[in-house]
Design a protein that fits this description.
Shape: rod-shaped
Bound molecules: adenosine-5'-diphosphate
Number of strands: 12
Order of helices and strands: HHEEEEEHHHEHEEHEEHHEEH
Strand content: 15-25%
Distance between the termini: 70 Å
Oligomer: single chain
Length: 492
């Protein structure tokens, strides 16, 4: 069942008016019916009383002279009025003197005829009066009247009332439909506009109102609110447009300066590499004593110059790589090569550094590895970086390079038993210039660029790089390298 409070305003208003009319009509028609009922009773008793007086006075001489026949004749005049069922005359001793009755009312006897009274009994009006002549009591007369005419009259009045009732309700309905329009139409328009504004976000919509009542005030308030919102919206749009222009300018500036920075770094690195290579080359010549014999101390110091220069060159190469990658100028070139050979060569070249620290460096490669079509130089660079890191961060134990075939790709794991990495640092180690400060590894040299370069390179080759590590136990760096360098990667 639909609850009253969920009905539309229109239905509510019409229902309230109909209910009110219904109760008012019921009240007035009930009152009218009751008054009709009473009025009929009063009229009937007054008619009976008049008739009793007339019949009584007409019967006086018959009663005084004990002439029952004449008295019956007087009562017999009632024959013309069929609703009078019984009439009776009683003498002063209370004896029945004469009577009249409709044929079917032969057995009826008045029970309380010797008094001045009138009452209703079992649907009949009964009236009795004294018969007085010249202030002397002559006897009593009693009359009994059928009330069926009253029922007929009442049912007629009832029908009339019902028609008036239905007519009243109909008129009330029509009037209420018309009357509620001014209220419900405005509220409905207001509600519809609210929904439209909510759904479309169009704050330029307005509600029309011709009334100056509370609804008119509500509509004015709603329109004013929409006005304010659309004003704020416009202001906000202008502000966003203004800020967007500013941001675009700032972005362009940032991009330009980023570009300039990368270009500067690239050219600087290039400029630095040439003299550095000379330093490394000439210190090499000096160390080989091609320019003349050296003392032990001179050899030691020249070796330090060569070592530092090589480290500096490594750093410069890293900076050059990362700036090229970040400015989008680093290109990768696809070539077919055998990955097992590359791993064997790389491991062999780095094994002396591992052995110098007392570590074992080995590889595990299955026999049936397919050929790879990728950038061999960049894959080698990543491998060297990962193995170098493993050697750098492992003080005892072993380093293993494990290669296996994955779906359309190769998986290369570099596993060490080194110092490991905290879980919290794992997400940061692939960022540029990030070095994990554990206190333990701070003695290790590095730029913090190695892993960032590895990640970018592997991504350029269409692969991924991940790390799993347990602090104090060791780390595993896993590279997934696609067998075929993607066409999209080639363009880079
Ligand atoms: P760095 O030049 O300092 O080695 P990387 O980018 O290569 O820079 O590495 C970033 C950091 O990640 C290192 O400083 C080190 O803390 C950590 N790290 C890299 N590889 C390993 C590893 N095999 N074992 C433990 N820590 C490692």
């Amino acid at each position: 069942m639909i609850r009253f409070r969920n009905l539309s305003i229109k239905t509510k208003l019409v229902s309230i008016q109909l209910f009110t009319t219904f109760f008012v009509l019921v009240f007035f028609l009930g009152f009218y019916l009751l008054s009709q009922y009473k009025q009929f009773e009063e009229v009937s008793f007054s008619r009976m009383s008049t008739l009793a007086d007339v019949l009584g006075s007409n019967s006086v001489s018959a009663m005084v002279f004990y002439d029952n026949g004449a008295a019956r004749e007087v009562l017999g005049s009632l024959e013309t009025q069929a609703e009078f069922l019984n009439a009776a005359l009683y003498d002063t001793t209370g004896q029945l003197f004469a009577e009249y009755h409709q044929p079917e009312e032969i057995n009826y006897r008045f029970s309380n005829a010797l008094s001045d009274s009138q009452y209703t009994q079992a649907g009949y009006f009964i009236l009795s009066r004294e018969i007085v002549s010249e202030n002397i009591l002559v006897g009593w007369i009693a009359l009994r009247l059928d009330t069926s005419t009253r029922e007929a009259l009442l049912s007629k009045v009832l029908w009339q009332s019902l028609i008036i009732f239905l007519l009243g309700l109909l008129i009330a309905y029509i009037l209420s439909i018309k009357a509620q329009e001014s209220i419900s139409d405005s509220i409905r328009t207001l509600a519809e506009t609210t929904i439209k504004v909510r759904d479309s976000g169009d704050y330029s919509l307005r509600v029309q109102s011709n009334t100056r009542d509370e609804i008119g005030m509500l509509v004015d308030g709603f329109n004013a609110m929409l006005e304010k919102i659309s004003h704020h919206e416009k202001h906000l749009e202008d502000l966003v447009a203004e800020r967007t222009i500013e941001l675009e300018g700032a972005k362009a500036k940032a991009e330009e300066s980023d570009h300039l920075k990368s270009a500067f770094l690239a050219s600087m690195s290039h400029e630095l590499r040439t003299p550095l290579n000379s330093i490394i080359g000439f210190t090499g010549i000096l160390l080989q004593e091609m320019a003349g014999p050296l003392t032990v101390e001179q050899k030691k110091q020249l070796s330090m110059v060569k070592g530092s220069s090589a480290h500096l060159l490594e750093l410069i190469n890293d900076v050059l790589d990362i700036s090229k990658i970040e400015s989008g100028r680093l290109q990768v070139f696809g070539d077919a090569f055998k990955i097992d050979l590359l791993i064997v060569m790389t491991v062999s070249s780095l094994r002396p550094f591992a052995e110098k620290k007392g570590l074992t460096l080995e590889y595990l490669i299955p026999e049936d590895l397919p050929e790879v079509y990728s950038d061999k130089r960049r894959v080698e660079q990543v491998l060297i970086n990962l193995i170098n890191n493993a050697i750098k961060f492992t003080d005892e134990g072993s380093i293993r390079v494990v290669c296996s075939k994955a779906e359309n790709a190769l998986s290369i794991d570099v596993i060490d038993t080194g110092i490991g990495i905290n879980q919290g640092d794992l997400t940061h180690i692939f960022e540029t210039f990030r070095q994990v400060d554990t206190g333990l590894n701070r003695v290790k040299e590095g730029s913090g660029l190695g892993l960032a370069i590895c990640k970018r390179l592997i991504e350029l080759l269409g692969g991924t790089i991940n790390v799993k590590s347990e602090f104090g136990i060791g780390s595993t760096f896993s590279v997934i390298l696609p067998l075929k360098l993607g066409a999209q990667t080639d363009e880079d």
